[in-house]
Amino acid sequence: LKPSKKNPHINTQAYIKYCGYNKVNMGDMRNLLKMSMVAVFVGWMFIWVMISTNLFKNKWTPKMTKYFNTTYFGPQGINLVLLTVPMMFIAVLSCLYLHIQKKPTQTQSKSKIKGRMGRVMMVMNPLGIVTVTEFTFSLLFVALLTWALGNYLYLSYHVSLHNHDNAKIWQAKFRAFGLRIGYVGHYCWAFLFFPVTRASTILPLVGLTSESSIKYHIWLGHISNFLFLAHTVIFLIYWAMTNQLMETFAWNPTYVPNLAGTIAMVIGIVMWVTSFPYYRRKKFEIFFYTHHLYGLYIIFYMIHVGDSWFCMILPNMFLFFIDRYLRFLQSTKRSRLVSARILPSDNLELTFSKTPGLQYTPTSILFLHVPSISKLQWHPFTITSNSNLEKDTLSVVIRRQGTWTQKLYTHLSSSIDSLEVSTEGPYGPNSLDLRHDSLILVSGGSGVTPFISVIRELIFQAQNQSTKIPDVLLVCAFKYYHDLAFLDLIFPPDISVSDISRLNLRIEAYITQEDKKPEAAEDSRLLQTKWFKPQPLDSPISPVLGPNNILWLGVVILSSFVMFLLLIAIVTRYYIYPVDRNTGKIYNFSYRVLWDMFLGCVCIFISSSAVFLWRKKVNKEGDKESKKQVQSVDFHTPTSSPGSWFCSHDRELESVPYQSIVQATSVHFGSKPNLKKILFEAEGSEDVGVMVCGPRKMRHEVARICSSGLAKNLHFEAISFNW
């Protein structure tokens, strides 16, 4: 026990030794978990490499069949054991690993920092910014697809060419090529859902978040849809050549149902076409609604490929649907909206109540849903608050851009005194390393908002006198002068001068569309703060599973998967197997995979709901206290005040911290920042962290400068929310 007033006789030296011993044990545990996960992952990838070979198909499979394809699991046994169980095992171990993971310390070597930041290898459209690690893994993945296609074609052309239709040899080979193209497309689906699992336990292991890895989902989606389209077109041509076009609509009860594949491909094409950048960025509603056809796409695709192939890609889908259902449970609660600030730039800052136990890292995002605007749409916004500085509130900034945000702005500008809002998240990196000699933050427009949370994190770290705080240069480009109102959000409302005394912040602001300060800026634009009345159903934003969220997520994953295995074994042994054995008929091909999908959803529903309700019951007292605080919040009348940038020169700002913001800022009119000059001027520092968030052109320019090799002390990281 730790020495205290209740236990004054505890030996302090013994306690210190115990703490040191405990830290060593934790370190050993982390290393053991890491080595275990690496070993399992290497084995899992080895199976993916070998599964397309003649050796695996004709030598290993017959031997494994008698052990794995039992009456309890049927023909899906091999894939279930070799391809499903390992990744689910890693997912469970990763929860424990992330829970005990050591946070970065100030004393760690900077060489490790450089390795984690990742060196940019190339910047090119349409791939964007590609690091050495991304390029290496992409190359290996393409090599895997090429290797698999080559092996599959070898099996078809030289080992066993299927020609049940008595077609010509070249036609049979043409059909085999189309079949194997579809097989290779299936490889992409083994990884497709990992990047879009927002509360993923897999992505943090490699330093990724769902937001930063969306591009991998896009790449995999394009590759798989192209391969599936080629698969479909080749079969249509083959059936046309052999006078079997009606096979397109065939539904074989004991083999692959072609109609299911046709339906899946039609849905897939609709989703694919509407996912291109034109629709994602300019017609978001079309992209949003068509992409929610993924449920139907999955059902018909799985019916087409069958239960054995379903088990090959089950892990990433199983984890995705656990995450999706937990997000649904979180989003059913109404969040307490405390206030809204309407900036002089007509942008918004919304402040919500949160539980003190909710922790998140800088650059995190929060998804918002406002039923009065749209019953279905959820939109992500950057969190500007800091969970260490602001224990009870969480703030997001919203730029008025697009139909949804315009409607929200109109709602908040009206005379309403309450607004129903649901939230989901926060989501962000597992950790953010800010240990540099200096930090250069480059932003364009609303891209400045994630850096507000970064600066607030540095303010928090500065409270520890032993922590070294990097010098910060914020380079921000805005179109118009009134956009400078974003800078008023850098400091929390209740910050004191002593809190920012150790922060060395310099701001270079560039106004690109105006040559001078507009005359109308004087006293004409007010920063309006609007307070909202608490409602009975409102509650603070809280972790979906309460404290130790990641451990309880591991419980959900483990319990739901074990339950799934047990139910599959029972249904196969006592329902499906007797049909095959006693009637002499083959159990319906489609029904097998429908059982798998149904039981998987049931297990996820039962396990997630049970853990969620249990944690809700355990945290009930804390929730009651938080709700009392929400209901007791005083309701203020709307207020207006001039922004820091819209005061007359002879009017003194009331807040000293905001004076320091204005004094630290140099405003440049009618020009864009010379990024090359700015970055190279930092060459005097040994270690310079460079973060950029803004338009694609800006991100690419900064990435090219940092990867040019002309300044080796620049360590680059991009933040992008352009999906």
Return residue spans where pLDDT drops below 50 for at least 5 consecutive residues. 104-117, 632-642, 649-654
Could you say which structural class the secondary elements and strand pairing correspond to? Answer: alpha/beta
Overall 3D shape: globular
Mean pLDDT: 83
What is the subunit arrangement here?
single chain
Description:
- The structure is a single chain.
- The chain is an alpha/beta fold.
- It has 21 helices and 18 strands.
- It has helices spanning 12-50, 54-68, 77-100, 110-117, 132-159, 169-189, 214-241, 258-273, 277-282, 284-291, 294-305, 307-312, 314-331, 403-413, 449-461, 549-583, 589-618, 620-631, 656-663, 675-680, 696-707; strands spanning 120-124, 128-131, 334-335, 337-342, 348-353, 365-369, 379-382, 393-398, 422-427, 438-444, 471-478, 505-511, 526-531, 538-539, 639-642, 665-669, 688-693, 714-718.
- The strands form five sheets. Strands 16-12-11-10-17-18 form a six-stranded parallel sheet, sandwiched between helices. The chain has a five-stranded antiparallel sheet with strand order 8-5-4-13-15, with helices on one face. It has a three-stranded antiparallel sheet with strand order 7-6-9.
- Strand 10, helix 15 and strand 11 (471-478) form a beta-alpha-beta unit.
- Helix 6 (169-189) runs antiparallel to helix 7.
- The longest helix has 39 residues, at 12-50.
